[in-house]
Specification:
CATH topology of the largest domain: Aspartate Aminotransferase, domain 2
Bound molecules: pyridoxal-5'-phosphate
Largest sheet: 7 strands, mixed
Helix content: 40-55%
């Protein structure tokens, strides 16, 4: 722990009072929440809360056991049918969380002797799923289809699975799904797409990036979470019936883990209903995200190809990212600093997340505050060094497969801290002004 502290990598949780709304009390202080995955504002929606409460009264709080032991509750089946229809698939299967879903699916579709091809910026749950599967892992450069194809050729027919986030969780860019599908089909390799951050936020009616690209019939397994845009907790995979039956038998995190709790399942059902009734909510999220990106670009930040609600402010050093986070907090904006091993070495950042429940005024104000916070911490967004945050790409020998077999971001050594400054905040986020403008609108 002392070492982590010395390296600026020590983590602690902050105390939030109340639900994950656009504003929260953080450690007792009112702040604008700009880092929650409650993208559509459904986690605190009255109908979602009510549905969860009703389900607790009717079906109880816990599911009792794994479904293979104590049975599928009617509520599980209902949500799976809705999710399958939502994703344009024959079947869906619930998991306890997205982390568990990725572990279970990858372990079921790849084993020792196989090769899994994984984007270098895939989520930690994919990295861990690959490790547990005991397959060899070829980590291809971020979104680099040419590198992926080279890796497939090196694997000489041992390729079992290509896995990619659709919307990358720390960068907000979108995988080139069409090209990856084309490769997967040409080489007869299965494909798993993690739509944790695409579900509810992009594509027609929030159906995700696979639907946006018209690839519902081409991808073998789509993973989506219930804990982000859908405002609840848990996850699902959507696929054809045969694959779902196989995963019931082979995905260890399905077989050996208690089924999702009725209130969480009912909450997600209500969220899906709300999404179907008012798809405009997704449009609002998309507009808000565009406002946030445009305003941050005006401040001079390089947004690294984000085209979604996830917007990275890549700062480089872990200490610097923590300092900017604290400066922003002092001005009333909460955007958590994300440091290695979650992101690559030299890629520490504030990872911002717009929500449909933010007002445009709040987002414009937040962008100003973040520019000030960066400058107060000694970082001028207009002077971003070209290499900040791209350590992986800069140092990798692109086509050296041995260099690529280790999972990318999770085992990287830590780096020395960068200096922080103690300047008092120049301005503080004006909640009341934002509120007045929102009310007038
Ligand atoms: C891309 C991605 N996949 C999977 C997960 C895990 O999902 P869950 O939080 O439901 O475990 C996350 C969580 O942040 C994620 O960002």
């Amino acid at each position: 722990m002392e070492e982590l502290k010395a390296l600026g990598l020590y983590r602690h949780t902050r105390m939030v009072s109340g639900p994950q709304g656009p504003r929260v009390l953080l450690d007792g202080k009112p702040v604008l929440l700009l880092c929650s995955n409650n993208y559509l504002g459904l986690a605190d929606h009255p109908r979602v809360r009510q549905a969860a409460a009703d389900a607790a009264l009717r079906w109880g709080v816990g599911a009792g056991a794994s479904r293979l032991v104590s049975g599928t509750m009617t509520l599980h089946r209902r949500l799976e049918e809705r999710l399958a229809a939502f994703k344009g698939q024959e079947a869906a299967l619930l998991f306890g969380s997205g982390y568990l879903a990725n572990l279970g699916v990858i372990g079921a579709l790849a084993r020792a002797g196989d090769v899994v091809f994984s984007d270098e910026l895939n989520h930690a749950s994919i990295i861990d799923g690959c490790r547990l599967s005991r397959a060899e892992v070829f980590v291809y450069d971020h979104c680099d289809v040419e590198h992926l194809e080279w890796g497939i050729r090196q694997a000489q027919g041992r390729g079992a699975l290509i896995v990619t986030d659709s919307v990358f969780s720390m960068d907000g860019d979108v995988a080139p799904l069409g090209s990856i599908v084309e490769l997967a089909q040409r080489h007869g390799i299965r494909m798993l797409v993690d739509e944790a951050h695409g579900t509810g936020s992009i594509g027609p009616g929030g159906r995700g990036a696979v639907a946006e690209a018209g690839l519902e019939d081409e991808v073998d397994v789509i993973m989506g979470t219930l804990g982000k845009a859908l405002g609840s907790y848990g996850a699902f995979i959507a696929c054809d019936r045969r694959m779902a039956h196989y995963l019931v038998n082979a995905a260890r995190t399905f077989v050996y883990s208690t089924a999702p709790a009725p209130p969480a399942v009912a909450g997600a059902l209500a969220a899906l209903e709300l999404l179907a009734e008012r798809p405009r909510r997704v449009g609002k999220l998309i507009r808000n995200a565009a406002v946030l990106r445009a305003e941050l670009a005006r401040e001079g930040f390089d947004l690294r190809g984000s085209r979604t609600q996830i917007v990275p402010l890549v700062l480089g050093g872990a200490e610097l990212a923590s300092a900017v986070c604290e400066e922003a907090l002092r001005r009333g904006v909460f955007a958590q600093a994300i440091r290695p091993p979650t992101v690559p070495e030299r890629g520490s950042r504030l990872r911002l997340a717009a929500m449909a429940s933010h007002t445009e005024t709040e987002l414009v104000g937040a962008a100003r505050v973040l520019g000030q916070a960066a400058r107060a911490a000694g970082f001028d967004p207009r002077m971003t060094p070209a290499s900040a945050g791209s350590g992986l790409l800069a140092t990798s020998s692109r086509f050296d497969s041995r260099a690529r077999l280790a999972p990318a971001t999770e085992d990287r050594p830590a780096r020395p801290p960068a200096p922080a400054t103690e300047d008092p905040p120049a301005t503080v986020f004006d909640f009341e002004a934002a509120e007045r403008v929102a009310e007038a609108a």
